[in-house]
Specification:
Chains A, B: InterPro entries: HTH_LacI, LacI/GalR-like_sensor, Lambda_DNA-bd_dom_sf, Peripla_BP_I. Chains A, B: Keywords: DNA-binding, Transcription, Transcription regulation. Chains A, B: It holds the Pfam family Peripla_BP_3. Chains A, B: One of its GO terms (molecular function) is DNA-binding transcription factor activity. Two copies of one chain form a homodimer. The first copy, chain A, is of the alpha/beta class and 338 residues long. Chain A has three domains: 44 residues, lambda repressor-like DNA-binding domains (434 Repressor (Amino-terminal Domain)), CATH 1.10.260.40; 125 residues, 3-Layer(aba) Sandwich (Rossmann fold); 129 residues, Response regulator (Rossmann fold, 3-Layer(aba) Sandwich), CATH 3.40.50. The first copy, chain A, is built from 13 helices and twelve strands. In chain A, the strands form two sheets. Chain A has a six-stranded parallel β-sheet, sandwiched between helices. Chain A has a six-stranded mixed β-sheet with strand order 7-6-8-9-10-12, sandwiched between helices. In chain A, strand 9, helix 12 and strand 10 form a beta-alpha-beta unit. Chains A and B meet through helix 4, helix 5, strand 2, helix 6 and helix 10 of A and helix 4, helix 5, strand 2, helix 6 and helix 10 of B. Chain A binds a DNA duplex (30 and 30 nucleotides) through helix 2 and helix 4.
DNA sequence: AGTTTTTGTCGACACGCGTCGACAAGTAGT
DNA sequence: ACTACTTGTCGACGCGTGTCGACAAAAACT
C-alpha cells in the first residue's frame, strides 16, 4: 500500500502538499497538483482511512439503524438501504447497517464519539420516538426516513401522503369509481394515521364514500378483509390498500371467492415496495413508493448536515408516481355501486 | 470521549498496562486488571476504533458484497445480512454492506489494503466466479454464501441441497404422492443445477416420477407453469418449487383455475425466504432456508480465518427443517395419479 | 519604493492505540 | 547460592494522516 510519503517523494514535493493537492483546502499551483495527481495514479494511492479518521476525526461512515423486528431488517428497508448506500458512496462515505438491539442508543453514542460513525439514519420513526430524543441530546447528526409527530427542524425524508393518496383517488375517480374501501392498520408508526386521514380527505373532495377495513400486517388478515368487504360492502367497486402484506392476502381472497380483479373490483396499492409488486398476479396498480430515492435523499441530507451545510434543504417529501398495471379498470356499468 | 491515558491515570497504571489488561495479550495481575476494568466502566471507555486500526492494522470490519442486481440487494440477502451482522457484532466486528458495482474488485482490494476492511463475504456465487479468483490472488480473506463448482479449501456456507430435497420428497412420499413436478429456473448460479439433480435423485429413490417445469424468476412465469402443469400433467398430485417468486405466481394460477391447494394439489417450497412465506395464502409448507444461520456462519468462518484459526472447520452445509404449513395434504384417493 | 496581501510550499505535531524491549521482582531448578 | 525462567509493569515508538504556523516569493496595493 502506497503512503502519502511515497507519493510526495515521487512527485518531488512535501507530504503536506500532497494532502492539500488532494483535498483542495489550500491553493496549490496547477502544475504541482498535476504532478501529484500523476504520482497518485501511478502508485494507486488511496489515503489510509483509519489514519484519516484518527487525524481528522472524520470517519466518513454512516450508520443506518435498522430496528431489528421479528425478521430483522424489514423488507422495504432493502430499497432504502440501496438508495442510501449508493448516495453515500457517491459522496465518499460508507454505510453500515446497524441492526440496533432495542434501546441500545448509548452504544450508538459511544460509537459516534469514538469516531466510528459520523451520522445516523433512522427508519420506522414513531410519532414519539425515544431514539430521536436521544440522538438530539447526544448531538449525533441524524436523518430520519419517516418523521415524528412534530419534527421541527430535524432532518427527514418522508412520503408525501397527501399527494400520493390524491394520485390514487383521482385515478379511481377517473375510472368512474364512487364507492371505495381501504385497507389500513393502526400501528403507532404514524404512517397509517397520516395515510388514512389523507385518503378520507381526498375521497371527500371527489365525493366518494370510503369504508375502512382494518387489517394487521399479515396476508391472512388481508384475506379476512376481503371476506368482510364481500359481505358487508358489496357495492364497493374499488379498494385502496395502505398495507403491502395485506394486499397479497386480499388478492388471494378475491381469487378464492371468484371475484375478478380488476373486472369486478379495482385495487390500487399505495404502500408497496417494488419487490412485492412483481410478486402478485395480476401485477398491482400502485402509486409507487420511491424508496430508493428516499434512501438517497436521506444520505444526502445527512451528509450535508455533517459537513456543515446547514443552509441546505433538510426536509423532503416524496409522493411517488401512479403506475397503472393490471388491477384497476373502469367501473362496470351494471355494478350496484355505480 | 475517554482515552486510554485517562483510564490509566484513574487506575494508577501505565497506558500500556491498560491495553494489556483489556486484550489479555500479556499477563496482568488479577487485582490490577480489576482496577483497570473498573476505571474503564467508570469512564465508559471504548478504544477509538481508528486509532486501533492504525496502530494494529486491524479494522475489525467485514464487507458483505451484495451484487447490485436490478433491485439492488436481493430479498433473501436480507436474512443473510441480519445473520452475518449479528454474528459479526458478537465478535466485535462490523458489517458494511457493499453494493458492489459490477467488477469493481480492484476497489475492494484497495480498501482491504488500506485497512478499511478485514475480510469479505460474497453472495450469489456462480459456478465460475471471477470475484473469487480475484480475492484469492489479492489475498483478501473471504467467505462465500454459496459455492463455486470446485470450492477446494475456500471458506463457504451453503445449502445442503441433498438433505433439504430429501426432507421434502420424503414428506411427500409419506403423504402418498407418487407423481410430482418441480419448478426450477436454469440460472447459472449453480443453485438450480444442484437442486434439480438432488431432487431427481431423491425422487428416484422413492420411485416417484418428477416432471420438470421450467420457470424464470417472475410471478407470471409461475402462473404459466401452473397452466402448463394443468394441461400436460394432470395426474401430478404434488409440486416442489425451487424458486420462491415463481411459487407465488403458481398459487395464483391454481386459484384462478379453481384448483384447490392443498386438497387437489400439494405444494412444497424449498427455496423460500421467511418474508415470502408469510405473504402467501395458504401459508406455504417449506423446507425452510436457514438464511439467518447461514449468515451467522459465514461471518464466523470469515472471522476465524482473519484471526488465523486456520484449523477450524471452514465449510458448512445447512439443510433447513421441514415446516408443515397449509399447502400440503395427503393425496386424494380418487386422484388419477394415485 | 515601500507596504500589505495573496499564493504556494514546507516542516512539525497530534490523533489514540498496539506492541516491543527493558527491567524489577518473584519462582523454580540445580 | 547461583542460574534460568516467569510474571507484571512501564516507557517509547510508530502507524499515516489532517492541519497549523512559518516563510519565501509573487502580486497588489499605496
Amino acid at each position: 500500500m502506497a503512503t502519502r510519503a511515497e507519493v510526495a517523494k515521487l512527485a518531488g514535493v512535501s507530504a503536506s502538499t500532497v494532502s492539500y493537492a488532494l483535498s483542495g483546502d489550500r491553493s496549490i499551483k496547477e502544475e504541482t497538483r498535476k504532478r501529484v495527481l500523476k504520482a497518485v495514479a501511478q502508485l494507486n494511492y488511496r489515503p489510509h482511512f483509519a489514519a484519516g479518521a484518527l487525524a481528522g476525526g472524520k470517519s466518513k461512515t454512516l450508520a443506518l439503524l435498522s430496528p431489528s423486528g421479528e425478521f430483522g431488517i424489514a423488507l422495504i428497508a432493502l430499497e432504502y438501504i440501496n438508495g442510501a448506500s449508493a448516495a453515500a458512496r457517491d459522496r465518499g462515505y460508507h454505510l453500515v447497517i446497524w441492526p440496533s438491539q432495542e434501546s441500545e442508543m448509548s452504544e450508538i453514542q459511544t460509537f459516534a464519539e469514538s469516531g466510528m460513525i459520523s451520522g445516523v439514519i433512522l427508519m420506522e420513526i414513531k410519532f414519539k420516538d425515544d431514539r430521536v430524543d436521544y440522538l438530539k441530546k447526544a448531538k449525533v447528526p441524524f436523518a430520519m426516513i419517516g418523521r415524528t409527530e412534530n419534527p421541527g427542524k430535524d432532518s427527514y425524508v418522508d412520503r408525501d401522503f397527501i399527494a400520493a393518496t390524491q394520485l390514487g383517488i383521482d385515478y379511481l375517480h377517473t375510472l368512474g369509481h364512487k364507492k371505495i374501501a381501504f385497507l389500513t392498520t393502526d400501528r403507532a408508526i404514524g404512517v397509517d394515521t397520516r395515510f388514512s386521514s389523507a385518503l378520507l380527505e381526498a375521497a371527500k373532495k371527489k365525493k366518494m364514500t370510503a369504508n375502512k377495513l382494518q387489517v394487521v400486517n399479515e396476508a391472512s388478515s388481508g384475506r379476512d378483509a376481503f371476506i368482510e368487504l364481500h359481505k358487508k360492502y358489496s357495492d364497493v367497486t374499488a379498494v385502496v390498500s395502505l398495507n403491502d402484506i395485506a394486499t397479497l392476502g386480499f388478492i388471494s381472497g378475491a381469487n378464492e371467492y371468484g371475484v375478478n380483479i380488476p373486472k369486478d373490483l379495482s385495487l390500487i396499492a399505495l404502500d408497496t415496495p417494488k419487490n412485492h409488486i412483481e410478486m402478485s398476479w395480476p401485477p398491482l396498480t400502485t402509486v409507487n413508493l420511491p424508496a430508493y430515492e428516499m434512501g438517497r435523499a436521506a444520505s444526502n441530507i445527512l451528509i450535508d448536515q455533517i459537513e456543515g451545510k446547514e443552509n441546505k434543504q433538510n426536509q423532503e417529501l416524496h409522493a411517488g408516481d401512479l403506475v397503472i398495471r393490471g388491477t384497476t379498470a373502469k367501473v362496470r356499468p351494471q355494478a350496484k355501486g355505480n
